[in-house]
Amino acid sequence: MALIPLLFALVLTACAPDSAAPSESGREAVSKRLAAADDAPYSAELEAVTRSGSERLQLMEGRVNLNAPLTGRTTDTTDQYTEDVVTTRRKVYRRAVGASGAWQEFPATVAKGGIPLDRLPRFVRLMLDHGASVEEGSEPLHVSARLTPKQFEAVDRTVGRNLRPATSVDAEAWIDGQGRVVRVRQRMHFASGPDIQASLALTDFQNAIPVSAPTGRQ
Q: CA-CA distances (angstroms) from residue 114 to 14, 36, 98, 168?
């Protein structure tokens, strides 16, 4: 079952009146934080929500490894199902919560949606390269930009392809004092049909966790 093109939602946060013109000092502060961030792998609690208007399409919760190929253990909930998900470097395993049968297996690329979760620093740099605004005085630092699906391909081709139905994407990110991206919001616009909003929050940063294929998957 392919994931709903991910995830991650936005209600755009209002900026200070003068933030329409990118602040050079703010942009430099974001770049310095990203450059100074520890590049060692770590794990974080994840909550990702996808909405269309007031309707929640998908909720994903769990712990994932970052600063490395995306791996982790999460629970994925929609109106149709609630599944345990184990993401390894090569494959994603999915099974209904509480079930004891076989796990479904998919290539790891199906875990990608509309936010390049395993490449968040590059995602923020992409925003800076395309006229991002930095909200003055915000903490964590708040960056926003309008991007096209084609521009996303410079960071992750799969994410860019997933976003191709959209005409544009209003993207936001928050960067903490350690240079970690702790929140992302996106609003995906379409030529016809309602916007899709996606939000991602990362908390409780710890050492990376071991993740392997679930036992008894056949």
A: 22, 26, 28, 12
Separation between Cα atoms, residue 140 and residue 198, nearest integer Å: 19
Q: How far is CA 81 from the centre of its chain?
A: 21
Three-state DSSP state, 217 = coil
Strand partners, 52: 55
Residue 96 structure tokens: 């209904």
Whole-Å CA distances, 193 to 52, 90, 165: 10, 34, 11
Angle at CA of residue 19, ends 14 and 20, nearest 5°:
95
Residue 21 in this model has a pLDDT that exceeds 90:
no
Structure-token pair, residue 153: 């391909």
pLDDT in tens, 50-90: 999 999 999 999 999 999 989 999 999 999 999 999 999 99
Strand-pair category, 42-52 with 71-77: unpaired
Other beta carbons within 10 Å of 9: 25
Q: Is the dihedral of CA 97, 114, 39, 89 positive or negative?
A: positive
Token look-up 């709903």 returns 4
Tokens of 200: 């991602």
H or E element: which one contains 28?
helix 24-36
Measured distance CA(118)–CA(72) in Å, rounded: 11
| Torsion sign across C-alpha atoms 161, 166, 168, 171 | negative
**Identity of the amino acid at 210:** P
| Spatial CA neighbour of 166 closest among 131, 199, 193 | 193
* 218, amino acid identity: Q
